[in-house]
Known about the structure:
about 60% helix, 5-stranded mixed beta sheet, Helix Hairpins, Pyruvate Kinase, Chain: A, domain 1, alpha/beta, 5 helices, elongated, about 280 residues
Amino acid sequence: xxxxxxxxxxxxxxxxxxxxxxxxxxxxxxxxxxxxxxxxxxxxxxxxxxxxxxxxxxxxxxxxxxxxxxxxxxxxxxxxxxxxxxxxxxxxxxxxxxxxxxxxxxxxxxxxxxxxxxxxxxxxxxxxxxxxxxxxxxxxxxxxxxxxxxxxxxxxxxxxxxxxxxxxxxxxxxxxxxxxxxxxxxxxxxxxxxxxxxxxxxxxxxxxxxxxxxxxxxxxxxxxxxxxxxxxxxxxxxxxxxxxxxxxxxxxxxxxxxxxxxxxxxxxxxxxxxxxxxxxxxxx
Length: 284
């Protein structure tokens, strides 16, 4: 049985931890609100741009853009999107595990690591790493997404890789994040287009010229959307984890306080018995 001093110290320590987790929950909630607004604003643009690319590619006939070229996937580039920080439950662990499964299923894989947690994990593993970005989520910008997209498209066009996949957490709601593996390159072909890809319209200049311009921004917009999705999902996961930690700390404080009061009551009762017994001994 721990002493009363040990119990008081432990209760005080847990109360301090509870204050920290409560503050982290509030910070994550504030950041989530801003990230959620950004990702909800980015999705319609990215989805519409995907529809336009699909529609244009269906009008090109046998002529194909380099980013639409389907090849046998002998070597792929796997982009792993994690957070820069921890204390967000299984957010980073789930992505790393899924990336590990993808690596085992393929013969030749190189990694593009977006986020410090993924970089810290895979730098001690044998899978080759193309590049690591470890400060992305301090401030997600379109310029950074454009830099990543330019590097990836250049490597795919140069036949360094036959496909590019991304593993990340897609933001759904505050309490739900979907672990997603998405093909970034090659772009969606006309055969995979939705039935409602758009009506007939005239193009000037030719569809191939328009497509060449559109795809430059398309990949960047998809990378930007994925980064925003992951950032919002991380804040949501951290808020949920810190809320759970705060509640658990409260339950532990209540349990220890009950133990402390019982121990204190037992100590007082024992002292009273000793005093009474001593007084009776003196009377006898």
